[in-house]
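Entry type: protein chain
Record version: 2
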Amino acid sequence: MYLHLGMDVVIPQSEVVGILDLETTSISKITRQFLDTAQKRGQVINVGDELPKSYVIATNKRGCFLYVSPISVQTLAKRAGKPFQIADGKLMLDNN
């Protein structure tokens, strides 16, 4: 299965490590440092020109990437067809 992140960006669901709410998780200093480091390393891929709502952490044989998406975590979870719950701004997918 694939996950549509917005515009023309689609990634395999098997590569998804996490889907996080940008507004609530970027409050943390360590998360901001993580995002800044990923940006400096060229690991951030912006999906669209709209206001970002979430970011998807994905990994594959080329490395780890962060996809910044204008789509909410709830909508991304529904697109993935997975049951979910949100705790502290983090989307928790049920992998069963």
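Comment: The radius of gyration is 13 Å.
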